């Protein structure tokens, strides 16, 4: 009997703990912030509450900052890049790892560092609904410390499901090399595998092509050195996490060289990362420039024998310089037409960006190939070496053009240049076509990285760009097109050789042979076109397969923006206002009652002047309308609160209030059952609206 009672007690206790833990994990907003602050304060740690926005209410979520002042001075501290290290966690993550947080704080309290350590626990960083980015915990804190020097930060996510990774760029900025290098070294030392998002194409962060992290953008956009760690928290124990951050702080304490380079390239070999810095890239660029100029000059001033022949070749080459700019212009027009056709497929059949890009390229190459037929017809006597020379010049120009855009792109276009340079020593059509395919492989690697780490909004301009973006794209693929032209001239040359061997034949026989040679050229030309189309199709298939593998192994599913369903009536949201006179002015109080706890509330005030609000204790910002302001309210507001303000002297003004509710928290009888929304993977939110039309000639109203 006693065993039975003990067993029942044990199960009940376990259920109680489980329910309590689950309740703790499901906390949101102010309740979540309060639970963490109470836990930290109970252990006698000095924690500071930092509001996301200035309000008169206490029940909005807030950031929590724990600061451990340095206890050891360093004579070289003046030469350091930082005097404070910030470790930023989200409150949603840390509520599940409170023991880890306690151990981390204790370690910092008991360790003498030559810098301050701050642990920031941010609220509202993991938004369920996009659109209120200014009120995230990271952005609010960075806005507060804007202009502060000597701070470096790590933004840590503990909810990664696939793999550990480091994000080193965002907001068209890249984290300095010294911080990323230190972070990767810590993972290596603790034998924890890690990947750097973007691989060897980190320059695309600075160009705004790779997807930005909202948290990391808050720091990098304000010139604060920062990197984001995405950790598989479910697979890492508290001990492993503490060991990782202990190593990181120790590495920073011993760091003496600070490489502020932001144009670096990480190269992963086995489990280790090696770094190619900006200085090395510049040295390689200068060497390549010197060697290439020597090759193009052909050292004709040294070799005097055949000088007249070289002079003749030089004149022929100079007269052919038009090929490069004409190819770029025509190819730009072809790309514009190709993207128009691709857009028709995008709207009706295909949504795969690889397929759309392939259609755009194939159409462009076919059209430019037809244009090259006119070139071959107009300049029958032009020698093959002229096109080889133009091919080399165009590929070399690309190195300088794209290195000027970002120096890190030097290696990509140098690799293409070397492939084209080697192809000069081959005169066989099949061999040249092999090098043509080989020269396109670096572009495939770049395109796959863009698709993996970019949002659809970032990819769309690349697929359907303006004239300038297509002009840049045409410069990139001009060498590829000129290599096709080189293949066509070799086919024509071989046909001409066949014609010379038949000069002793009768005239009638010559006509027959001429027709046969033309047909041979047409057949070979068509074969090249079909082969190119098949090549692109194969590339699309293989790249799509590789993308699926990468997504399944390493890539996190991007948080989907929720679907917003507008409610025709305000079922839960109520609002009213009162006006009172104060020394000739008006004090207006806006009362908001959401009944059930909403996800977000937005309040807009519209007047008849450019400044509809003279004064308020709340923070507010100007909207796109000159006569409208919006109050800055964090997500997860209280159900009931009031906003007090002094309005302008407008006779007529309007207060628009919007409330957003999670569909699962909204009364079912008031939900319009939408089949498309129910089948969607996106989360659904219900939006309610209340408008207060205020006329100072009549008394205050209520809705």
Content of β-strand: 15-25%
Largest sheet report: 8 strands, mixed
Number of helices: 20
Instruction: Tally the structural domains.
Output: 3
Percent range of helical residues: 40-55%
| Low confidence ranges | 4-22, 299-307, 502-507, 674-679
Mean pLDDT: 82
Alpha carbon gyration radius? 33 Å
Q: N- to C-terminal separation?
A: 63 Å
Structural class: alpha+beta
CATH topology of the largest domain: Aminopeptidase
Shape, per Cα inertia axes? globular
**CATH class call of the largest domain:** Alpha Beta
CATH superfamily of the largest domain: Zn peptidases
Adjacency order of strands in the biggest sheet: 1-2-4-3-5-10-6-9
Q: Quick recap of the structure?
A:
The chain has 20 helices and 22 strands. With 703 residues, the protein is an alpha+beta fold.
Explain this structure to me?
- This protein is an alpha+beta fold.
- The chain folds into three domains: 275 residues, Aminopeptidase; 274 residues, no CATH class; 133 residues, Immunoglobulin-like, CATH 2.60.40.
- It is 49% helix and 18% strand.
- The strands form five sheets. Strands 1-2-4-3-5-10-6-9 form an eight-stranded mixed beta sheet, with helices on both faces.
- Strand 18 and strand 19 form a beta hairpin.
- The longest helix is centred in the last third of the chain and has 47 residues.
- The chain is globular, with a radius of gyration of 33 Å.
